[in-house]
């Protein structure tokens, strides 16, 4: 287990309070309470989020939280903590039972289960979150939603396999393309 300094533990506590507010308590005000006066959220693959405390509170309250499926779950894989920064690698799992404009804008519910690796880069100022840059592979999400041809060189939920088990199959896309 990683040993963290007291300063690093404080950042982790703020970040975990923030994610609990979003995913467990579904409370936009509690999420915003963990942030600076001018926070930034960017879901990089689809450019959703907001800048500024009130705009972000509105985004959380009206889009992100109500459009998070009831079974949404984050599985932390790795965490790096540095000076005023946390980088988390995690798998986001959910059933696409709701329209999720923050994740797949304009796509109506498909009822499909998704497992999508993510990386979150979270920066802090004075002990509060100042920015979140959240990355994921939108192609794997679209394949799992049934919106992108699986014949393309893109993995579906199997993209998570080697992150969870280093002995899981590898090079499936290369082998698929061989005669």
TrEMBL record:
The record's Gene Ontology biological-process terms are:
polyketide metabolic process
User: What is the name of the protein in this document?
Assistant: SnoaL-like domain protein
- What is the source species? Gimesia alba
Task: Show where the SnoaL-like domain sits.
Answer: 21-130
Q: Which SUPFAM superfamilies match?
A: NTF2-like
Highest taxon, organism lineage:
Bacteria
- Top-down, what is the taxonomic lineage of the species of origin? Bacteria, Pseudomonadati, Planctomycetota, Planctomycetia, Planctomycetales
One Pfam annotation reads SnoaL_2
Q: Which PANTHER family match?
A: CARBOXYMETHYLENEBUTENOLIDASE-RELATED (PTHR38436:SF3), POLYKETIDE CYCLASE SNOAL-LIKE DOMAIN (PTHR38436)
Q: Which residues cross the membrane?
A: none
Cross-referenced InterPro entries: Cyclase_SnoaL-like, NTF2-like_dom_sf, SnoaL-like
């Amino acid at each position: 287990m990683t040993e963290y300094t007291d300063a690093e533990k404080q950042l982790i506590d703020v970040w975990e309070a923030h994610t609990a507010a979003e995913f467990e308590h579904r409370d936009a005000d509690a999420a915003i309470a963990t942030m600076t006066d001018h926070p930034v959220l960017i879901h990089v693959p689809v450019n959703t989020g907001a800048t500024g405390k009130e705009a972000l509170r509105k985004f959380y309250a009206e889009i992100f939280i109500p459009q998070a499926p009831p079974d949404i779950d984050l599985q932390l894989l790795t965490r790096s903590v540095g000076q005023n920064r946390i980088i988390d690698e995690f798998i986001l799992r959910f059933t696409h039972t709701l329209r999720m404009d923050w994740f797949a804008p304009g796509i109506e519910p498909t009822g499909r289960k998704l497992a999508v690796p993510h990386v979150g880069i979270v920066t802090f100022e004075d002990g509060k979150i100042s920015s979140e840059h959240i990355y994921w592979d939108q192609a794997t999400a679209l394949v799992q939603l049934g919106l992108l041809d699986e014949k393309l060189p893109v993995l579906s939920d199997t993209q998570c396999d080697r992150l969870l088990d280093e002995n899981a199959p590898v090079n499936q896309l290369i082998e698929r393309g061989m005669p």
